[in-house]
């Protein structure tokens, strides 16, 4: 069997406040958008910039943390995988949406705005051990 990889890492700023809701089973889910920018110089020496927007989805404990600590403009590191979902609307039109499903988030804002912290969906919340 061949291996494959679906891993995405972005660093950018939130474009809107996170929105948290719950599934029918009571699982928390938080969505937000993150803008990343890149700059380059054209062959004519002109400086250009492009912004790419990512739709981010966080589940469970990470969803609650994102909703509690992130705000529009927050600078974040997000790690996860890309997932495309599809649905049909009432008129039978098929829609697609590609999202970054987060499994790790690190707040990069300076400490005066938010305490810098790292949150990992798989993190064990047990006691700190001395080794």
Keywords summarizing the entry:
disordered C terminus; 131 residues; mainly beta; OB fold (Dihydrolipoamide Acetyltransferase, E2P)
What order do the SSEs take from the amino end to the carboxyl end, as H and E?
EEEEHEEE
- Any idea what the CATH architecture is? Beta Barrel
Rg over CA atoms: 18 Å
Distance N terminus to C terminus?
37 Å
Short description:
This protein is mainly beta and 131 residues long.
What is the topological layout?
Blueprint: E1 8-14, E2 19-22, E3 28-41, E4 47-59, H1 60-69, E5 75-88, E6 94-107, E7 118-120
Parallel strand pairs: 4-6
Antiparallel strand pairs: 1-3, 1-5, 2-3, 3-4, 5-6, 6-7
What does this protein look like?
The chain contains 1 helix and 7 strands, in the order ββββαβββ. The longest helix has 10 residues, at 60-69. Residues 124-131 have low confidence and may be disordered. The protein has a 5-stranded mixed β-barrel with strand order 1-3-4-6-5. With 131 residues, the protein is mainly β. The protein has one domain (8-120): Nucleic acid-binding proteins (OB fold (Dihydrolipoamide Acetyltransferase, E2P), Beta Barrel), CATH 2.40.50.140. It has one helix at 60-69, and strands at 8-14, 19-22, 28-41, 47-59, 75-88, 94-107, 118-120. Helices cover 8% and strands 53% of the residues. The chain starts with 7 loop residues before the first strand and ends in an 11-residue tail after the last strand.
């Amino acid at each position: 069997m061949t291996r494959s990889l679906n891993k995405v890492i972005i660093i950018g700023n939130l474009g809107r406040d996170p929105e948290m809701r719950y599934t029918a089973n009571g699982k928390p889910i938080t969505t937000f958008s993150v803008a990343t920018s890149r700059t380059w110089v054209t062959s004519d020496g002109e400086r250009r910039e492009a912004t790419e927007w990512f739709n981010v989805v966080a589940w469970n404990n990470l969803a609650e943390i994102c909703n509690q600590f992130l705000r529009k403009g927050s600078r974040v590191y997000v790690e996860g995988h890309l997932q495309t979902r599809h649905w049909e609307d009432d008129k039978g039109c098929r829609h697609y949406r590609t999202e970054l499903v987060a499994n790790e988030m690190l707040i990069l804002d300076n400490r005066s705005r938010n305490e810098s912290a790292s949150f990992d969906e798989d993190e064990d919340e047990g006691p700190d051990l001395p080794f």
